[in-house]
C-alpha cells in the first residue's frame, strides 16, 4: 500500500491534516474515518491499514483544533463541534470525491464522528455508514446506575474547565486539548434533550431524517462511561429513514477481556471483528 499525508483546505481558513491509504489493488470502495472527540488520526492507523489491505482506499483525518488541523488565517472562526460536522466533514468528503470520482464512498464514524453525520450537508453522498460506539449523549439515556458520573461530567467538569481554563486540558480524558467552544458544545449537547442543536438551542434534525443510506451501529457491551448500548439505540432512532440496525459487541464473543469505547480500533482487537466490518463495507 501507499501511505501519504494530505492537507484539506476548508473555505473558512483551516487546513485539515489527513492520512490516505492507497491499496495495490483497489476494490472500488473508498472509506473515510471520522474520528472521536480529541482523538488523533494515528489512533486509527492499524485499522486503516487493515482495510487498505482488503482493497479499500482509506482516509483518516483530524477535526479543526485537534492535532495538526489548525487555522491558517487570523480571522478563521474558533473551532466548535458543529463546525466539525457542518464544515470539516463536508470539506473532507467533497475533497475525497473530487480526487476519487471512480469510488463508491462509505463512512466510518467513531463516537462523535458518527453523531455528526446528522449535520453534514448532503450526507447521502455517503452510500453507507458504519457507526462505532456512536451515541446520543443526552444524559438521561444512560442507565440509572451510571447517571451520576454522566451528570457530573456534562454539568460540572466540562463547564468548569471551559469557563476557567478556556478549554478541556489533555490530562482530563487522556485525549487532545479541546478548544473552548468544542467543550462547550459537548456539554450543552449532553445536558439538553435537544441534543445536537444550534447555539440558540433549536434541535438540528433535518440531516438525520434525510439520510437514507445503509447504516450499521456497533455498541460495546462493556462501554459504560461514554456510549452504553442504551445511547447507541437512541442515536439509531434519529436516523429514522436510514436502512439501519444495531449490533452489540460482547468482549467474550471475540475472546477479549474488554473492548469498551476505544478498544475496537486498537491493534489488540480480535481481527474477526475487523473482518466483519470490512465485509459489511463491501456489501
Task: Give short descriptive properties of this protein.
283 residues; alpha/beta; Rossmann fold; nine-stranded mixed sheet; two-stranded antiparallel sheet; 9 helices; 33% helix
Give a structural overview:
This protein has 283 residues and is α/β, with parallel strands linked by helices. The chain has a single domain (2-143, 203-282), classed as Rossmann fold (3-Layer(aba) Sandwich), CATH 3.40.50. It has nine helices and eleven strands. It has helices at residues 45-53, 81-99, 112-115, 147-164, 170-173, 180-191, 206-210, 229-238, 271-282, and strands at residues 2-9, 14-22, 29-34, 57-61, 70-71, 104-110, 128-132, 167-168, 178-179, 214-220, 243-249. The strands form two sheets. Strands 1, 2, 3, 4, 5, 6, 7, 10 and 11 form a nine-stranded mixed β-sheet that branches. Strands 8-9 form a two-stranded antiparallel ribbon. Strand 1 (2-9) and strand 2 (14-22) form a beta hairpin. Helix 4 packs antiparallel against helix 6. It is globular. The mean pLDDT is 97.
Quick summary of this structure?
The protein is built from 9 helices and 11 strands. With 283 residues, the chain is an alpha/beta fold.
- Tell me the structural class: alpha/beta
User: According to CATH, what is the topology?
Assistant: Rossmann fold
Shape: globular
Radius of gyration using CA atoms only: 18 Å
Tally of individual domains: 1
Supply the CATH superfamily name.
Alpha/Beta hydrolase fold, catalytic domain
Q: Strand content of the residues, in percent?
A: 15-25%
Mean model confidence by pLDDT:
97
Amino acid at each position: 500500500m501507499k501511505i501519504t499525508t494530505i492537507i484539506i483546505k476548508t473555505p473558512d481558513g483551516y487546513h485539515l491534516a489527513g492520512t490516505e491509504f492507497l491499496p495495490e489493488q483497489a476494490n472500488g470502495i473508498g472509506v473515510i474515518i471520522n474520528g472521536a472527540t480529541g482523538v488523533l488520526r494515528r489512533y486509527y492507523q492499524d485499522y486503516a491499514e487493515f482495510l487498505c489491505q482488503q482493497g479499500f482506499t482509506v482516509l483518516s483525518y483530524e477535526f479543526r483544533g485537534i492535532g495538526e488541523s489548525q487555522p491558517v488565517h487570523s480571522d478563521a472562526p474558533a473551532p466548535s463541534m458543529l463546525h466539525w460536522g457542518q464544515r470539516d466533514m463536508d470539506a473532507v468528503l467533497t475533497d475525497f470525491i473530487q480526487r476519487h470520482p471512480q469510488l463508491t464512498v462509505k463512512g466510518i464514524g467513531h463516537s462523535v464522528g458518527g453523531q455528526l453525520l446528522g449535520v453534514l450537508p448532503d450526507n447521502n453522498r455517503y452510500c453507507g455508514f458504519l457507526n462505532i460506539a456512536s451515541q446520543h449523549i443526552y444524559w438521561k439515556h444512560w442507565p440509572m446506575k451510571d447517571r451520576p458520573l454522566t451528570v457530573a461530567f456534562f454539568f460540572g467538569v466540562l463547564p468548569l474547565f471551559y469557563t476557567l481554563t478556556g478549554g478541556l486540558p489533555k490530562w482530563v480524558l487522556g485525549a487532545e486539548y479541546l478548544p473552548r467552544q468544542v467543550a462547550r458544545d459537548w456539554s450543552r449537547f449532553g445536558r439538553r434533550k435537544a441534543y445536537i442543536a444550534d447555539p440558540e438551542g433549536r434541535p438540528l434534525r433535518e440531516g438525520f431524517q434525510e439520510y437514507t443510506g445503509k447504516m450499521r451501529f456497533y455498541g460495546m457491551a462493556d462501554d459504560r462511561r461514554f456510549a452504553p448500548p442504551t445511547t447507541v439505540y437512541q442515536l439509531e432512532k434519529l436516523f429514522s429513514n436510514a436502512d439501519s440496525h444495531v449490533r452489540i459487541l460482547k468482549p467474550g464473543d471475540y475472546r477479549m477481556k474488554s473492548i469498551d469505547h476505544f478498544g475496537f480500533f486498537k491493534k489488540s482487537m480480535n481481527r474477526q471483528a475487523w473482518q466483519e466490518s470490512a465485509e459489511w463495507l463491501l456489501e
